[in-house]
Design goal:
Layout (H helix, E strand, L loop, with lengths): L2 H48 L2 H8 L3 H14 L4 E6 L4 E3 L16 H6 L3 E7 L2 E11 L5 E10 H40 L5 H17 L3 E6 L4 E4 L1 H7 L3 H4 L4 H4 L13 E8 L2 E9 L6 E8 H41 L2 H25 L3 H16 L3 E4 L14 H18 L6 E7 L4 E8 L28 H11 L3 E6 L4 E8 L14
Parallel strand pairs: 11-12
Antiparallel strand pairs: 1-2, 1-5, 3-4, 4-5, 6-7, 6-10, 8-9, 9-10, 12-13, 13-15, 14-15
């Protein structure tokens, strides 16, 4: 049986039990109140009739006809079922059924009134049936008991009055129960819609899956409700923003996350926008929630992670470009060799082969002698060919040496640093007379890298912010990332940068501790 059916049956059962309990409590109380009211009516009428002088006189005189006329007049103003009058001997002088006048009063409950002069309530069975009656003695002026009067209501009459009085209440109760049943049915349907037609176990499973997805997602996720409070936040976001999920849950987002308005629940949707959350540079998206009070879901990734992926793709592209250059260069050389061989100039062909082989071998030998990192060596050889294609000269300064990559960097990060610095120098130099010099050394306690060029340099207005995201002297889109990544990798490794920007030469120096020693300075660039 589904949860909603169980809920409906439970509510119906609860309402039924309440109705039964109400009836068990109210019905006896109503009967008791009705009995008390009837008893009081009988008492008042019996006592008033017993004080009538005309009645007392006619009973004393045994005037049965006079008593009957007087009692008939009393019936006109009384709602009692019967008024019975008897003399001192208990013989009836007035009765609803005339044929029973003169006969002894039945019921056996009039002795106390005739002998002791008592007034009392009695319930018993008489000639008319079971009834509730009040008996009063008839006492003359001398204090003698001359008879008694009995005013009563049949139990059947009480039952009829009970039905008359309980009918509106019963109808109202029945209507209330029916309305409650309808309300319970509507409530169960509303609960079903609110639960999306699923069972509690299914909702629990959905919640567990939701939590698992939320916390296993590599991106940071923050849900903000329409009032600006944090509705949900995953572990990745808490780790990156240095937050405790148990503390920030349900708290105002502006009190815990500095976002320059990016976490505003009323803001428009954005996709892959640059933002800063708690001073962390991120690429973030914001999507509005389709809720009555509004709200947004914010997903974000660290800029350096996205840039790292972009840089890795860029490195692959660079290697591909280097292979293309080498293929193009060697294709031309092979065409020349083919022509010389066909002409029979074998000596010239052999001389060209030796020249090309010697020049390339010199580059390879120089790089291999200076650098033990294979990825970096491959990058430098590729940059040599790239420089030649762009009519630039790339020089590896004598004395360069790298035996071990610094502990704070891996080879991919080191290649990204060197590659970005060389590429910036390529862009700064003019073809024909551009010279880029690269020097690296791990002789001292720090790994040192210097890349210098005789290009156009860095504008003075950009010098202080050149390592910031998006800052570049170039106007084309897609720039302003390389030096930011260089600075990020160097700082993560505990190193620092120096910028020497002179009129004829620009030099960027990188210093990274070989053992991971912390540094926090950048000379000349104010960082």
């Amino acid at each position: 049986m589904s949860f909603n059916k169980k809920l409906l049956l439970f509510l119906l059962l609860l309402l039924s039990v309440q109705g039964i309990l109400w009836w068990l409590v109210v019905e006896p109380r109503m009967v008791s109140l009705l009995r008390e009211e009837v008893a009081e009516r009988a008492r008042v009428q019996s006592r008033q009739i017993a004080e009538l002088d005309q009645l007392i006189a006619r009973v004393r005189q045994q005037d049965i006809a006079g008593v009957r006329r007087l009692v008939d007049e009393l019936y006109q103003v009384s709602d009692a079922d019967f008024i019975v009058v008897s003399d001192r001997q208990g013989r009836r002088m007035a009765h609803p059924k005339p044929e029973r006048i003169g006969l002894p009063v039945m019921g056996g409950d009039i002795e106390a009134a005739l002998t002791q002069g008592r007034h009392y309530l009695s319930e018993g069975t008489g000639s008319l049936g079971r009834s509730l009656r009040y008996i009063s003695p008839l006492i003359d002026d001398q204090g003698d008991i001359v008879g008694m009067v009995k005013v009563g209501y049949l139990i059947d009459t009480l039952g009829e009055w009970r039905r008359i009085h309980l009918m509106p209440i019963t109808l109202m109760a029945a209507s209330s129960i029916i309305l409650a049943f309808i309300a319970a049915f509507i409530f169960s349907r509303w609960i079903r819609r609110g639960m999306l037609g699923r069972e509690p176990q299914q909702l629990l499973q959905l919640l567990e899956v939701h939590q698992a997805i939320l916390h296993s997602t590599h991106e940071g996720l923050i849900a903000v409700d329409g009032t600006g409070r944090i509705g949900a936040i995953n572990q990745t976001a808490c780790t990156w923003l240095d937050l405790d999920p148990a503390v920030v849950q349900g708290q105002p987002v502006d009190a815990w996350i500095e976002s320059q308005g990016f976490c505003d629940p009323k803001a428009a949707d954005v996709v892959d926008d640059m933002a800063s959350l708690n001073h962390l540079a991120v690429i973030a998206s914001r999507v509005a929630l389709n809720l009555p009070d509004g709200g947004v879901v914010i997903s974000f990734r660290r800029r350096d992670e996205i840039s790292m992926l972009s840089q890795q793709l860029s490195q692959i592209s660079q290697h591909t470009e280097s292979l293309r250059i080498m293929r193009h260069e060697y294709a031309n050389k092979l065409s020349t060799l083919g022509g010389l061989i066909q002409m029979g100039a074998l000596d010239k062909a052999l001389q060209l082969i030796n020249q090309q082989s010697e020049r390339h071998q010199q580059v390879i030998d120089l790089v291999k002698q200076s650098c033990c990192a294979e990825q970096l060596a491959g990058l430098l050889i590729g940059k040599y060919h790239r420089a030649a294609e762009r009519q630039l000269r790339l020089e590896l300064v004598p004395g360069s040496s790298l035996r071990v990559v610094p502990a704070g960097l891996d080879e991919a990060e080191l290649c990204a640093i060197v590659g970005n610095l060389i590429d910036n120098s390529f862009d700064a130099c003019r073809p024909g007379d551009g010279v880029i010099q690269v020097f690296f050394s791990d002789e001292g306690p720090e790994f040192e890298l210097r890349v210098s060029d005789n290009g156009c340099g860095i504008p003075a207005a950009l010098k202080a912010d050149i390592f910031e995201w998006g800052v570049s002297s170039k106007t084309e889109p897609g720039h302003g990332i390389g030096l930011y990544l260089v600075d990020r990798y160097v700082r993560q490794a505990g190193g620092y940068l120096e910028l020497d920007n002179e009129q004829e030469q620009t030099c960027i120096s990188v210093y990274v501790p070989k053992e991971g020693t912390e540094h926090d300075r950048c000379v000349d660039c104010g960082r």
